Each structure stands twice: as C-alpha cells, then as structure tokens.
Amino acid sequence: QSDLDRALYLSSLELQRCSRQESSSSLLNKSTPNVSYDSNSEIASSALKHQDRFHKMSQDQRIQVEFLNTYQGRIRESTNGCTVIAPLMAIHHLCNMESLKTRNPILLKVDVNYSHDLNYPAEYESDSTSTSFDDIGINNDSITAVIDIQAPLVVPKVREHLGLHADALIVPSDAHDYLIDDNFLHQNQFVGVHGGNILDNNHLGTFLRDFSEYGLDDEDWKRKNEGRVKKAAATLYFHEHVICIHRLMATRCGDDALLHGNTTKQSKKILLRRIRNIGKKKRKEKELSKRCGGKELVVFDVIDSLPSASTLSSQKKRNGSTGWLQQTARIRCIGRDSLQTYLTWYACSKFSQEDKNFIDSYQFDANNVDLDPRVFQTFIWSE
Fold this sequence. Notes:
By secondary structure, the protein is an alpha+beta fold.
C-alpha cells in the first residue's frame, strides 16, 4: 500500500472518532501539576513524568515558548481551520519569496503595516517567555499573516469545494489535495506519512528519525545549494487538532559555530540591534554549547495556532481561561530529544479521564484504532 493510500486511511479516522470537548478550567500556578494523579493509573503516572521532563527542559531552555497575539478563530473564517493553517505554515517555511511568487497569489497577501519581503524579516514579538534564536525560522509577521489573512481566504474555499458547511472539520488529505490542485503545495514536495501510537517510542521515534535526518546525506543537493541542507516541515494530527513543525537546521554545536543554518539576510535595523546584543548572545551561545555537548543538532519550531491551556499552563498564567489559549504558540525545541519530550507531553496533556481509562484498559491495536485516543498522523514535506 502506498504512502498516500495509507495517509488517506489514517485521515479517514478523523471523521470516525467522536469529537472531544475540552473541559473548561482555570490555568494553574507554575508549581502545581495540571495532570490529575491516580496511583492506580499507569498513564496518569507516565503523564506526570512527561510533564516534569517538559518543565525541566523549559527551565534549561532546551524548549523555549513564545506567544503571538493572534490565534485560529480570531478571524471568523479561520475557525476549525487548523488542517489548512498547518500546511500553509509549512509552505512559508519551505519556500523563499521567488518560489512563493510562482504559486497561488494568496500566499503573498499580508497586512499593509509590514513588509513581507522574506529577505528582510520583521522583528519578533516582545511577548516571549524566553530568549529565542531570532535569526532563524519564519518571522512572526508571516505566522500572523497565515492565520489572520491567508487562512480566512483559503479555508472557506476548501469547505465550498468539499461541500461542507461553515465551521466543519476538514479531513487532512482533503486539505492537501486542494492545496496541491490550487498551486499552494506541489506534489513533489511530499516526502512521506507516519502514524500509529504517539506513546510508542517506536512509532513516534520513527517519524522523528525520518523527519530530523531527511536530506542530511543528500550531497548532490548540498553541492548545488552552497552546502545548505534541504528544508523540511511536518504537520501532525492528533485529537482533532493540527500543528506544524519546521526543521530549521542541522549543525554541530560548538563555541565557534553554534546553530548556523537556514539564516536570512538581515535589515539594517535588525543588524544594528544584534551588534548591540552581541556580548549577551555570545554568553548565551557558550552556555548552550555546554548543554549541547558538541553533538549534531537539529532545531525545530512547533507552531500551534490554538494551543491547549493544559499543555502550556506553566508557561503563561491567565485568569478565567477555558480549554484553549487565545494566542498562537511557537515552541522551539533544541534537538530531537527536546521535540520528542514536547510531543509526548503535548499528547498526554490532551487525554481526558475517559481517554486515560481506555489507555489503561486496552493495548494499542493497529488493526482497531477507530476510537483509540493514542492515534497520531504526520505528513512530511520538503522544499
């Protein structure tokens, strides 16, 4: 069975599973676990361990969280549009401006208040919980443009094409088909699909290995592109929500060459700011170099257009929050282990009590996954 056939099968599960409504709850203090603990529950105990590991990596800045002042659904037409928003985010990571100009013109629609020239990225939002490596990855203005301008134009078109009512959930493969047919994505950018039990290290680990290592040994590509590694992005579907993951770079972590990779040309304003901060940045790089241990690294940005409060409650305290944070989150993971830690905690944080009861009671069966809450699916794309 081909990868695309398997993708269609896995995507069909999204329609078969019962929709889960996140229960409303206020965000808890940093020191208070937001996972209920049952001494008889294996998954509850495991979730606490994954939460602790996530917090530890956040404190060590191996996982860094930044919030943007927009979110899926802020503009009415983007509601339930994550299956479109995530691949649009992937496109903006994979394509430079010249490539975008050859594709659907909606990809060039931006806010009139800033320039969308990808060679001169806008400065990042100041609303960040930790210091980011602000010379890599797509800029925050591009993320905002996707959520507030481009998705509200594309999502209704996809639903109309599929004969769906407003706000209806969209099957991932249907969204991809539309984006390919209407010249947003290209079929030859498709790398592969993975899926299975997100709590199984073999299932999730296979995806992480293939995603993080894709193209690293493509010497012909490197020779034609001045030694640059081919860009890669993935969309991950879990519990009726979709996030996008950008693989930013692969580099050896050392004092003389820390995290060099898919950088962009800087405007004079940004260049001057970086010169002023060069001493601070050098100290930060030296500290991170010690933590990296000189290993080969891949850096990832997870972009979640509607993050769950239970996932990131320790990162952003709010009053009267319900199930979702009304701010897009950009989660930077330094290395594959950090990404695995985040995705495992991301999954655990979404399990309801009913889900936990199911997981404690039944082993994962790949031949009977219609209602299994552990099922995940990822698509990998490249430039």
